[in-house]
Amino acid sequence: MLPSTKSSRGQMGKTLEYAPPMSEFNMLRADLGKGEKEVIEKVEGPSILFATSGGGKMHVDGQSYDIKEGHVSFVGQGVEVAYDTDAGMRTWWFTGLMRNR
């Protein structure tokens, strides 16, 4: 199993990073409890976000979007994303062109 490390890309410290031994992509996992939020800083390539449990709101460029289990969102290059939840939520990000820090 691929080990995880605390990701510096999650500003609230709720995100783990999985870095395969290839440089094409990394994976981020954020587990949010009731009332928690996370902000993922801009990444160098496009990303796909999957909500795998729970739900909440995703905030991008002044717009808010509902997100819940089963939702998939495309996040463009250079976009910061904040999300929060009242009930708890798990998200996975598949991000291209990330650089290990």
Index terms:
mainly beta, nine-stranded antiparallel sheet, 101 residues, Jelly Rolls
CATH C-level class is Mainly Beta
Quickly count the domains. 1
Q: Average the pLDDT over all residues and give the rounded result.
A: 89
CATH superfamily: Jelly Rolls
Oligomer kind? single chain
Enter the CATH topology name: Jelly Rolls
SS summary, helix count: 0
Which CATH architecture is right? Sandwich
Helix content: under 10%
User: Which shape, going by the Cα principal axes?
Assistant: globular
Taking the alpha carbons of the first and last residues, their distance comes to 21 Å
Radius of gyration using CA atoms only = 13 Å
SS-based class: mainly beta
Strand content: over 45%
Most strands sheet: 9 strands, antiparallel
Tally of DSSP β-strands: 9
Sequence-ordered SSE layout with sheet pairings:
Layout: E1 4-6, E2 15-18, E3 25-32, E4 37-40, E5 47-60, E6 63-68, E7 72-75, E8 81-84, E9 89-96
Antiparallel strand pairs: 1-2, 2-3, 3-9, 4-8, 5-6, 5-7, 5-8, 5-9
